[in-house]
């Protein structure tokens, strides 16, 4: 098997955003490359303040073939970012939960470029790439009357690699059951957790660091990547609990903590 079938590049662009490149395909998942969240009202002054500038300018992303959005929250489906990408990469497609498509159209993205995604059916984007939407609980699983989920994660089966991006989700027995059907090479998991005080401000949460570490070890991820912890201090529990859990309970479980903008070449060793 060729080396190319066993490797891809991963660039971390902040919050939960990643850009994956393999062969001649480039995919962004939940890119958030502005400070739009900082401008939102309804929270205490200074609650949302980015800790670092966007490491990539969206208007420079001229090689993207696909953008996947997991749900409509602005740090996952940012109008400023997506408009710039749509212009810079005119052949780029955009996939998202069906409920998100009207908002994407309102951003000026042509409907012919949009793909509604649901857990009912995998999407074959290219000969070597299949995208299976995975249900997410943020903090609940929300579906419309026809069973289309409002919150999704994505399982990418790309050549012989299997990549899981959880989006925003709690850890539920149902999620573990779904994921147990896959052998996951790289998993991107949110670790910011939740608490009543954030809930009072309307901030819905995710699995925490200990749960994410335990999940990766239980399912034998080849490598786990923690996300959703470094950009907004008021919506984070930090990185230390995640690392400590791995070293105390799951020594040998591989992980990588990205710096904003960092690119890693992942190679699967069979």
From TrEMBL:
Keywords: Hydrolase. Gene3D superfamilies: Ribonuclease Z/Hydroxyacylglutathione hydrolase-like. The keyword Metal-binding does not apply. InterPro entries: Metallo-B-lactamas (IPR001279), RibonucZ/Hydroxyglut_hydro (IPR036866), UPF0173_UPF0282_UlaG_hydrolase (IPR050114). Residues 51-229 form the Metallo-beta-lactamase domain. It catalyses: 3',5'-cyclic CMP + H2O = CMP + H(+); 3',5'-cyclic UMP + H2O = UMP + H(+). Coiled coil: none annotated. One of its GO terms (molecular function) is hydrolase activity. Pfam families: Lactamase_B_2 (PF12706). Counteracts the endogenous Pycsar antiviral defense system. Phosphodiesterase that enables metal-dependent hydrolysis of host cyclic nucleotide Pycsar defense signals such as cCMP and cUMP. PANTHER family: L-ASCORBATE-6-PHOSPHATE LACTONASE ULAG-RELATED, UPF0173 METAL-DEPENDENT HYDROLASE MJ1163-RELATED. This is MBL fold metallo-hydrolase.
């Amino acid at each position: 098997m060729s080396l190319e079938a066993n490797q891809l590049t991963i660039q971390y662009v902040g919050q939960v955003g990643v850009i994956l490149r393999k062969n001649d395909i480039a995919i962004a998942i939940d890119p958030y490359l502005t400070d739009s969240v900082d401008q939102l009202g309804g929270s205490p002054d200074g609650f949302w303040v980015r800790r670092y500038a966007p490491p990539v300018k969206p208007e420079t992303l001229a090689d993207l073939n696909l953008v996947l959005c997991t749900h409509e929250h602005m740090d996952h489906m940012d109008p400023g970012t997506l408009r710039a990408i749509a212009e810079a990469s005119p052949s780029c497609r955009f996939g998202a939960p069906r409920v998100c498509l009207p908002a994407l159209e309102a951003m000026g993205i042509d409907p012919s470029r949009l793909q509604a995604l649901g857990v009912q059916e995998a999407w074959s984007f290219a000969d070597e790439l299949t995208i299976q939407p995975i249900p997410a609980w943020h903090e609940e699983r929300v579906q419309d009357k026809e069973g289309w989920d409002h919150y999704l994660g994505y399982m990418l089966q790309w050549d012989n690699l299997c990549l899981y991006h959880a989006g925003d989700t709690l850890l539920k027995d149902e999620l573990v059951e779904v994921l147990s059907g896959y052998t996951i090479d790289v998993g991107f998991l949110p670790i910011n957790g939740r608490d009543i005080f954030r809930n009072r401000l309307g901030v819905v949460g995710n699995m925490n660091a200990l749960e994410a570490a335990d999940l990766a070890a239980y399912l034998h991820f080849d490598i786990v990547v923690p996300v959703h912890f470094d950009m907004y201090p008021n919506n984070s529990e930090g990185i230390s609990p995640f690392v400590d859990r791995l070293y105390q309970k799951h020594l040998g479980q591989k992980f990588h903590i990205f710096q904003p903008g960092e690119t890693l070449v992942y190679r699967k060793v069979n």
